[in-house]
Amino acid sequence: MKDKLIAVLIANVLLGIIFYWMNYVPEAQRNDGTYYFGFGEIVTFVFIYAGPAYLLAGLPLSYIIEKYTVRFQGLSGYFLRLGLYAAAGLAVGLLYGVIAFQEIPLVVPGVFYFLGLGLLASLLFSHVLLVVTWLGERMNNVQKLSGGSNV
Length: 151
Fold this sequence. Notes:
Blueprint: H1 2-23, H2 39-68, H3 74-101, H4 111-146
């Protein structure tokens, strides 16, 4: 569970950086009298809006996905988890779209924006979790080999 919380924090920061990069307007292209959000503001918005989604939906769904795919190893397990994380991200994105538009937004063009964000966030989280878990296992193996205590 500690790995998942660390992955949530890292994925949230990375998502903020990606959003800033997507919304960045170079100085030469900026209009006079128009306010442009800075890096800190965009990262704060991502923490406010994506953070609860990661905590309230992402962690439980991640726990379920990992629990039921633990017996699948190697490349087939990776692609199975990738597909399940993608489906979970699309479902959470659709839920955000329903909350934002106050209706099922199947015909609203903005639904694709929320679906894309949910997909991006879930796949980013799954890969960050993969790296954090791998690093955690590697550190545990080093501690066992050196005879240190596992905290």
